[in-house]
Every structure is written in C-alpha cells, then in structure tokens.
Amino acid sequence: MKRILIIEDDEALAEELSILLKRNGYLPVYSEPCDLVLMDVNLPEENGFARCRKIKEKSSVPVIFLTARSTPEDEILGFAVGCDDYIRKPYNSMVLLARIERLLKTEVTEPEVRGLRINTGEMKAYFQGKDIDLTRNEMRILLCLIKRGLASRSEIVEDLWTDGIYVDENTLYVNIARLRDKLSQIGAEDFIHTVRGVGYRI
C-alpha cells in the first residue's frame, strides 16, 4: 500500500483527505517515509515552498501542492522549488486521485555504467557492493553524464534547469567536486573526467 504524507494545518481538510485516500487504497501518514507528499503552501512556521525545497534536496519523492494560493506567480514558484504538481483548492476529488495515480506510476530507473549503478528512487549510487547517498543535484549530474557520455558545462546546467534545479557554473563545480569525493568513497574513482575547454565525461 502506497504511503501518502499529508502536510495540512487545517485539521478538517486533513481528515477529509485522509478518508478520501483510505477509500481509494492509500495509506495516509503524517510523517516520513512516504511514497508521495500532499502539501499545502500556507503552513505555520515554514511555508510549503521551503519545505518542498528541503524534501527535494534529499529525495525524489513526488510532491503535490494542494493550496488556495492561485496566482500564476505562486504556481511558477511551486514548480521552481521542485513540486511535481500544483492543484488549487477547492479541489476535485477525482482529479486529485488521477494526479496521485499518475505520479505514483513513475518508474524507478537504474542506469548503469562500468559497474556504477544509480537508483533514482532511492537516490543512491552502488559500486562493487557499496553504496552512497546522492543529493538531487548529484544524481541529475550523473544521469546527464551517463546519458550523454560527454557533456559541456552549459549542457549540464541546462539539464539541471530543465529538471527544476537552478544552479550556475560555480555551483556546478562544487557539486562535481562533492560527487567525485562521494564516488571515491565507494571505490568508484576517476569516473568523472574533466575535458579541458569542453566539460566532463564518464
């Protein structure tokens, strides 16, 4: 049974969502781990945009904003911080369930190169029986290099932007250095090579 984390400060609405999810075969929860996050934007202490950004830094779990904030600017900001869908209140139950089902059907892929395997669901890299946790940036950089073989700095930055991650080239350098260090910790040394004047290759 798929676990759906409800982050909603309106107790009546949280209970309504819980009942809806239970009736349709999901397990509503109020703490991690989970398979999907259903979250309001207007929350006490820390708003949903900030919470979503933190979730996406450490996990690839889908996030749906369910909110009364309906301006185009709010929706754009929602996707900018990494949400996977943005639904306005009052919501249609059938539409919400369809969006949840669509996101939970996303397949976990495990691309592999020279014995280095990436699990996109767990956000981990595996090599010779060892594993290491990856941040979202690190995982996307590895996936880009595996897909392209040789990628320029601008191509990697563009790939990250397309995925809703906003970085500049200086941030890219830092992420590449951290990624190399993490890979070396599991014995996958010299996997990322700098090609002078071009970018990076696996």
Describe the structure.
The chain has 7 helices and 12 strands. The chain has helices at 11-23, 48-58, 72-80, 93-104, 136-148, 153-162, 169-185; strands at residues 3-7, 27-29, 36-39, 63-67, 85-88, 112-113, 116-119, 124-127, 130-133, 150-152, 193-195, 199-201. It has a 5-stranded parallel sheet with strand order 2-1-3-4-5, with helices on both faces. The mean pLDDT is 88.
Assembly type of the chains comes to single chain
Radius of gyration: 19 Å
Mean pLDDT: 88
How far is it from the N-terminal to the C-terminal residue, by CA? 38 Å
**Main β-sheet: number of strands, strand sense, barrel status?**
5 strands, parallel
Secondary-structure map with pairings?
Blueprint: E1 3-7, H1 11-23, E2 27-29, E3 36-39, H2 48-58, E4 63-67, H3 72-80, E5 85-88, H4 93-104, E6 112-113, E7 116-119, E8 124-127, E9 130-133, H5 136-148, E10 150-152, H6 153-162, H7 169-185, E11 193-195, E12 199-201
Parallel strand pairs: 1-2, 1-3, 3-4, 4-5
Antiparallel strand pairs: 6-7, 7-8, 8-9, 10-12, 11-12
In short:
This protein is of the alpha/beta class.
List keywords for this structure.
202 residues, alpha/beta, 5-stranded parallel beta sheet
